[in-house]
Write a structure and sequence with these properties.
6 strands; 31% helix; 216 residues; 4-stranded parallel sheet; alpha/beta
C-alpha cells in the first residue's frame, strides 16, 4: 500500500498538493533537485477580484547554473512581503474565515526573510496550514536526489506544476469562492483560498479531491 508521497518544496501550495498531505501518512520533500523557475517552489496562485493572481517569492540568483532547491535563498527584492500580504488581504479579506486565521499567517510577512532558505520559509507556512486543517503527516527531507522508489512510495515531484500539471489522482472539488460570481470556480488555487473560504470544512474537500486507491 502506498504510504509516502514524494513532493517538491512549494510556497503556499495548491489544493492538489495538500490532498497528498491529507491522504499520505508520510511526505518526503525533495531538497536536492535542481531549482526550476516558474514552478510552485516559489510561487502560488490566489483568486482575486480580477481572477487568478500569481504571487512569486523573489530568490537570490544562485552562483552556479544548477542549484539544489535546498540551497535557494530568499531575496528582499521589491518589498515582496508587503505586496504579497496586501494581495492576500485584498483577495480574502471578505471571506468567511480570513479573520479567524490571519493572525497565524501575518507574522511570516512581517519578519525579515532576506537571505533565509526558501525551503525553511515554505516549511514554516506548510506547518501553519497543516495545523489549521488538523492534519499531521510525517514530513521528512531528502539528503540526496532521489532516483529509486520503494513499493510504498509515489513520486509527485513534477506532477503538481502551474503550467503542465500531470496529477491524475487529483480531481478538483467545487467549493465556495468569494469571487465565483465574476469568474466562475477557479480550481486548484493556493490552499489559503480553500481554507479562507471554507474553514473547517476544507478537510471534506481534500478528502474528495484525491483517489483513495493507494495500492501499488
Amino acid at each position: 500500500m502506498y504510504r509516502t508521497a514524494c513532493l517538491s518544496t512549494a510556497y503556499l501550495p495548491p489544493v492538489s498538493y495538500f490532498a497528498k498531505l491529507y491522504h499520505y501518512p508520510v511526505i518526503e520533500i525533495e531538497t536536492r533537485s535542481h531549482y526550476v523557475k516558474q514552478t510552485y517552489r516559489n510561487r502560488c496562485h490566489i483568486a482575486g477580484a480580477n481572477g487568478i493572481m500569481p504571487l512569486s517569492v523573489p530568490v537570490i540568483k544562485p552562483q552556479q547554473a544548477k542549484c539544489p532547491d535546498g540551497d535557494i535563498r530568499i531575496s528582499n527584492h521589491d518589498n515582496w512581503q508587503h505586496l504579497h500580504w496586501n494581495a492576500i488581504v485584498s483577495a480574502y479579506g471578505s471571506t468567511p474565515f480570513f479573520e479567524y486565521y490571519r493572525d497565524d499567517l501575518f507574522p511570516c510577512y512581517q519578519k525579515n526573510q532576506d537571505g533565509r532558505l526558501l525551503l525553511d520559509f515554505n516549511n514554516e507556512l506548510l506547518h501553519i496550514v497543516c495545523d489549521w486543517l488538523d492534519i499531521h503527516p510525517q514530513i521528512r527531507f531528502t539528503s540526496h536526489y532521489k532516483t529509486e522508489f520503494t513499493a510504498d512510495e509515489r513520486d509527485f515531484r513534477e506532477a503538481i506544476h502551474p503550467k503542465h500539471a500531470d496529477n491524475r489522482d487529483f480531481t478538483a472539488q467545487v467549493y465556495y469562492q468569494v469571487f465565483a460570481d465574476k469568474h466562475g470556480f477557479l480550481p486548484d488555487m493556493s490552499i489559503i483560498d480553500l481554507v479562507f473560504n471554507m474553514g473547517p470544512e476544507s478537510i471534506l474537500i481534500l478528502n474528495g479531491a484525491e483517489k483513495t486507491e493507494t495500492t501499488p
